[in-house]
Fold each of these.
Amino acid sequence: MLSALWLFLWLSAALNAAAPPDSGLLFPRESSSRELKELSGLWAFRADGSPNRNLGFESAWYKSRLSETGPVIDMPVPASYNDITQDPTLRDFIGWVWYEREVTVPTRWIADDGLRVVLRVGSAHYYSVVWVNGVKVTEHEGGHLPFEAEIGTLLRKDPTMPCRITIAVNNTLNLHTLPPGTIQYMTDRTRYPAGFFVQNINFDFFNYAGIHRPVLLYTTPKAYVDDITVVTDFLDNTGLVRYDVSVKGTTSAALKVTLMDKGGHCVVSSNEASGVLKVPNVNLWWPFLMHENPGYLYSLEVRLKATDESSTYEDVYTLPVGIRTVNVSSTQFFINNKPFYFHGVNKHEDADIRGKGLDWPLIVKDFNLMKWLGANSFRTSHYPYAEEILQMCDRHGIVVIDESPGVGIKDIRSFDNVSLTHHLTVMDELVRRDKNHPSVVMWSVANEPAAEMPPAENYFKTLIMHTKALDPTRPVTYITDSNFARDKGAPFVDVICVNSYFSWYHDPGHLEVIPLQLNTQFENWFGKYKKPIIQSEYGADVVPGLHNDPPLMFTEEYQKVVLQQYHRVFDQKRKKYVIGELIWNFADFMTTQGIIRVVGNKKGIFTRQRQPKAAAFILKERYWRLANETGILPLWTKYPCPL
Ligand code: BDP
């Protein structure tokens, strides 16, 4: 029932999905030709609690004000809706929820029909349909990537109308969504009330939903810079910026492309839409702790001029550019031809109250904590994070493994062509969005899929090859668990990423088995594939404040010893082929309720409120020591471990 409309929407998305994106999706930035209007704040909201969750569509709630079709509540955007109220049915709600906001659009935006007015949603989980003044303008599948629609033409049809934006969002997951899930109806009336159903998932984080990232309106001229792609390299002292600008809305654009240094001084310019810019005395983009001046960014300003019968258009877009290279050998990972060792974290977009909603204080706090820790990298487990976070990584030199939402692919039906087609589309959208971030050094196409299943080999081969074709400049991986049988994708990856939880999920309580088992894990994977390995997850749950010595599971002492045991083996193998270690997890995070979770996953080295557990100090001491051993500068004096 819930699924009738859902199935229809999903099918139409799956059919559309096969085509690669035919336009760019540049991050919206103000410039002399582009204005921006943020729509963060309070929106009207209603969850469709009707038995089939379809009343909103049947009664066309988008046609009038939401408050005219029933009661509404205040809902902050961006935020997950789940933890905002005291209502348990909203926290666990599955189905369509409706958001609405009326916006006053500046008259000149409407009056000037030489302008495009674009409505952009940073992300909404999971499936979205968007209307403006009752007219559908777009729909989008996928909870972690942006989408947009040009609405200026529509607004101009009746300039007396206010701009009423309605967004319906559905968090229902099925076997072909990313991540996948299933809806299970419980029909035994002696045990469950009528209509009772649950959503089953195979991933370990709460399926927060709603409008998670900023919604905004921005303008561009009708002839505009649609996309920019940069690929960087260097030769001796000269940086090389290969660029390609694509333009829309005109066939006769004149372009001026200028690369500026940090101080805003022109370094080199060109009048071509694509080419190679040579940067003398280049300042390379270096990771945090690998150089005294990490995260150096140039600015690539693209100026477009175009004329048609009636008007002249000028567009300006400026893209930050970091010049760096990434390479792998069978035993090492190189940034700018120097060996790079990942000492970092796995994160989640997750916090009290706002769930997965973008939150600047939290983002800045997390960056401060990563630096305190001496972390030089993180993985965007288990989905693409906000662009704003990647921009911080670019500026601070924090290296990123950029992961798709391919998590929890455990059912054989999720390896079919429908799923694969959608997964390929997600990779298209992800690479289109993140290709220009110097901080992004590797793509991860999935986390812990059931890769031992027969269709997995073709699935991963296609997926990984597709991703490499989209971006030949970055290595590609998928994250495997320690089960060596799940290696069907391994022949195609550039770097092996392994998660293992020795003495936790295996041999719980037996800290002494860690060195032997970890050694076996590394030797097996390297022995078979001769590829560099990252320990992409390891860790243990701690209920903060629980203590026991000798260590017992869930105490602060146990987490410390798990880490120390792992570190002993890392120290042997990092001299050989282990190229990184990422703790699971940076902070505690919310999960679905279950008998192995105590108000969420407690493997954080920080609590959900970002306070350190005892193990955070072990890691901090180690990461600063590693920075001094593996960085390219004599760091000890330059980077003393902060108190
Ligand atoms: C790993 C998963 C991660 C989980 C973690 C755990 O990749 O999402 O949260 O286990 O169980 O296997 O803590």
Amino acid sequence: MVNKLKKAFQPVLIGMLVLGLCATVNAQSLEQVMKERGLSQADILAAAKTYTPSGKLDEYVVFSSGGQSGHVIVYGVPSMRILKYIAVFTPEPWQGYGYGDVASMAILDQGRIRGRKITWGDTHHPAISETNGEYDGQYLFINDKANPRVAVIDLKTFSTVQIVPNPIMKSQHGSTFVTPNTEYVLETSLYPAPFSNDYVPLEEFNEKYRGAMTMWKFNRKRGKIIAEDSFSVELPPYCQDLTDAGKKVSAGWVFTNSFNTERYIGGFGKGNTKFRDRLPHEAGMSAKDTDYLHMINLETAKKLFKEGKDTKINGHAVISMETMIANNALFLIPEPKSPHGVMIDPSGQYLTVSGKLDTHVSVYDFKKMMKLIESKQYDGRDPYNIPILSMQESLHGQVELGLGPLHTQYDKEKGIAYTSLFVDSAVARWDFLKLKLIEKVPIHYNVGHLVSAEGDTVSPDGKYLIALNKLAIDRFVQVGPLHPQNHQLIDISPGQPMQVLYDMPIPLGEPHYAVMMKADKLKTIKRFKQKWFKHRVKPGKERVVRKGNQVTVYSSIIRSHYSPEIIEVKVGDEVTWHLTNLERAQDETHGFTVDTYNINASLEPGETNTFKFIADKEGVFPFYCTEFCAALHLEMMGYFLVKP
Ligand code: RUQ
Ligand code: CUA
């Protein structure tokens, strides 16, 4: 009733808002601006809902994958102001990440695979650490789809602290997802391949190619994934896709969906292989009407790992399908073909799966699935002997939402969910308990993932939803054939139709998935403490120490000079240069670069960075501060002199 009244009076309310503003600001000016800029009252309302005056902070913070940039993009909601790009798999000069400083170089070096240094990543799915199923704001995890790796970001500093390559996978996608207390970070393979690094012909695909899910053990105190305490579960050579960890009633189980349960290996095209006359992958991989939702008992897998029931492959513990099946810990359930993601509702009981080629979203009931497992009621077994549960008997129901349903997020209101419709370019609001569509809102264009406020947790906030759109086409000033992506902010307040509030171009890689957290959960530090750095330089203790051809420089930096300012070495000297920013004022960052050495540092107050290089060429090399820090910033320089 109240809502109906509100709806009826909405135009009046907007009118009052406009008039009210007019009365207090300047009647002419607002009307004039609206007229001049062609703004409607709905535009003004949207602006009022997103505009964040100078000095006011956003209520939510979004961590978005940065796609091919290998970074994470951070922005605020509702303002949609970009706050930071966190460098993860790719060097990033502003943060001095991967440009010579020993610590960040070592992190990027952890990401080597089979000895090869990799300087880019394809970030897809970020996950915030959770405590009891709630975001706790401590850590962020993100995957690299291109080179199977996961990274840990410490949200105290918003910096990457660890990169962990997967020892058995050759690609991955279903990553990262965390268990409700962040005991494990889940990583699931995408394209099946042998676990070993050997060549195995495609004819042996069914026998020797495999999928897997890795359970990375996260040690919160150390802020690190502990490889020795982690293990994987072997899966059939299907393309496992997005994953989710059970919560509340389904805690202890993990789920992943899949495509290409046909195990089609393609070959189309005039390549040099014997398979050349076959259909392309896309046709062969979607031939069947259903694929398999995988259900894995994590608790049992943990137990099996503890009991040593694993095999070591490339030094990593793998629990075989056979062992998992024998211990009632691995099941399959048919799902509409080629889905993207299995999303568990806040209660943990319902799982939504949308086959992109089906117009329905399927809602599975975990309790029904468990009943089938307990009574050992199987519909058969897959070629790897994994028991299959009946789809019909596992389903709570299906709802027709529209074309290309893709990803679902949950609301604060019980039973309410939002599903992106890729082909329709729309978002559906629907009730997954009552199985009915409520409304749709059009989106520009071709929406992929959605993110709602705290939408992955046991208690979503509602309020805001963001559509992560793949195309921008005509939404922004043209910047050439490569367009930005478009994140659209949608108001999902209850009792009113969904309203698109804001278009934000994302100009750095293609975001795939994002997570949105209450900003007040962040506990970031404002400045570093000098004592945290082993090689810090105390004021007055700056010096240059020579031992044979090894030269160690202990430099301090403070507005607006380096100390020492002149460093003289000989060609061939091995230089270790420690620099400490002695500033105490917040945000007083200084930079450091040496002419042609391809190094750049961002030294935040209190921070020490170390650079190691060989003075390999004779010459005069000015060094300077790369961050405009004070009136005498240009004077903040020195000479690095290399004598013959
Ligand atoms: S997404 S393929 Cu969920 Cu990784 Cu874009
Ligand atoms: Cu220090 Cu510019």
